[in-house]
Amino acid sequence: MTAGVHLQQIQxxxxxxxxxxxxxxxxxxxQEEVIDQLLVAIMCDANALLESYPGLGKTLLIKTxxxxxxxxxxxxxxxPDLMPSDITGTxxxxxxxxxxxQFRFEEGPIFANIVLVDEINRAxxxxxxxLLEAMxxxxxxxxxxxxxxxxxxxxxxxxxxxxxxxxxxxxxxxTDRFLMKIKVNYPDENDELEIIERYTTQxxxxxxxxxxxxxxxxxxxxxxRQVPIxxxxxxxxxxxxxxxxxxxxxxxxxASPRASLGIVMAAKAHALLNGRTYVSMDDIKKMxxxxxxxxxxxxFKAEREGRTPDDAITQLLERL
Length: 320
What we know:
Helices cover 47% and strands 17% of the residues. By secondary structure, the chain is of the alpha/beta class. The protein has two domains: 17-224, P-loop containing nucleotide triphosphate hydrolases (Rossmann fold); 225-320, Orthogonal Bundle (Helicase, Ruva Protein, domain 3), CATH 1.10.8.80.
């Protein structure tokens, strides 16, 4: 493959995602950074955790993404009485002609391409753990039989940061399975005015085009891994993640090597989204926040000073 063809392919991908985001813009107002980070997670074949207050369009955004990509979508509303079998499926007794009975597996909502797990921290730990195998291995085990999930497969989960009564915080081992923790913030005044204008005077659910097939997405995920990154930048990523483990005044528990892998892969996808043939430090800095913020635990001193994980990441990046 020549350099010219390679550059042309990159430009084609950038153009495709520009049109992709324009299509999302028919439904979602603003939230460009959130959309970029979701696309990065999908290109990395990874799961993402979205955190925000109610009413900011998380469900609508994820459903719109699946519509444009022509992917099978399923939504699971987490509640304390949700059982693992409600997610994975179960065996049913089926009676055939002649009275013969047999077990038939009834697939649960996990058998989709994009699975939205709404308010994941409202499900019990037993039910949360039923998602682990699907998130990591792309399969589920029911009884003594393993069922492969159809690729591509992503779990996009949401949680509310303020209403913690009756919730079950995700254990660190499970949050680590999410490539990113994406923060969905309130819209600015202009965006909120546009939301009012659209949804009080126009059709509430505008039609979006489907223009990315499953095979195209799978090929794009493979292509994402081929984006080059210099040894110098890789060393800086390792240094950054190592410093999360060494600065005990700021961070009590640091990130694992999975964070280093995540930053590099997310930076490759971010570079591809922006039409570049290589990973820059700007990609690393932008992707460090969503990849690291759920993988570090602040020290008591930092929490007492009112610092957030993003403040800690900013401080580490400034020293890099």
